[in-house]
Amino acid sequence: MALTSKNTVSAWESAKPKVMYLVIGLIAGPIVTNIAGWQVLSGTARDRVQASVVEQQATFCAANAHIAMPDTSKLDYTARNELAKKWAVMPGTTTAESDVADACARKLAS
């Protein structure tokens, strides 16, 4: 019986460093990868997708507005915003999103 006890202690002593490295890795791994920027949080991904959608819709809005009025750079701020709000209404919606209208107005200014 003393032999079994001695083998158990030596087995734990040989496994102890490996267990400690595993625990340290499980704690430090996510922290290091987050600091390095290798992780993308769901909120960040959602914001990036939303920004891409708004940019694409603003491009469609600006293209349609340029068809209706070819030289939009000479319009004042209010007229550009009104034109953007008119063309920022996407199919299937009844009103324009403010983000899309603002981005469209910026595109029309240039």
Written overview of the protein:
With about 110 residues, this protein is mainly alpha-helical. It folds into two domains: about 1-40; about 40-110, no CATH class. Helix content is about 75%, strand content about 0%. It contains four helices and no strands. It has helices spanning about 1-35, 40-70, 75-85, 100-110. Helix 2 (about 40-70) packs across helix 3 (about 75-85), helix 2 (about 40-70) crosses helix 4 (about 100-110) and helix 3 crosses helix 4. The chain starts with a helix and ends with a helix. The mean pLDDT is about 90.
Record the SSE blueprint.
Blueprint: H1 2-36, H2 42-68, H3 77-87, H4 98-109
Helix pairs in contact: 2-3, 2-4, 3-4
Order of helices and strands: HHHH
Could you say how many structural domains there are in total? 2
Q: What is the helix content?
A: over 70%
- Strand content of the residues, in percent? under 5%
Separate helix tally: 4
Q: How would the global form be characterised?
A: rod-shaped
Structural class: mainly alpha
Mean pLDDT: 89
Main sheet summary: none
Number of strands: 0
Distance between the termini: 87 Å
Radius of gyration: 30 Å
Short descriptors:
110 residues, 4 helices, mainly alpha, rod-shaped, 2 domains
